[in-house]
Amino acid sequence: LQSRARTVEDLAELAEPFLVAEPELEAAATRKHWARDPAATAEGLRALWSALDAGSWEEGPLEVRLRTCAEERGVGAGKVIHPLRVALTGRTRSPGIFEVLAWLGRDRAERRVRRALSILEEPDVFLS
User: Fold this and answer.
1) Of 19, 32, 98, 101, which residue is least crowded by CB atoms under 10 Å?
2) pTM value?
């Protein structure tokens, strides 16, 4: 957190998603990374979660699996990282995604991805 925070306010903002059961989703984040094509975003999150959940829950192996999944889907890593970041933190800005995954742990991360998928399945209700 410290490397991305310049002020105490930044630190508090970056830490918040780790201190709550479900972070609030920023409207700007969902519009930017989910709303354009909710069905494709959900499909990408499902594929990514399947890849991430298939091995050890440490930053290095998580990064390898995420980048491999992106490559297999024919997209850059950012195309899967940003929707995942919104699912996990509710924001467009956070510590590194692999740190976020490791810090949250598999169970909390899975709950947040499942929540994101349920939102993406009803985009008219949640992404308006």
Assistant:
1) 19
2) 0.88
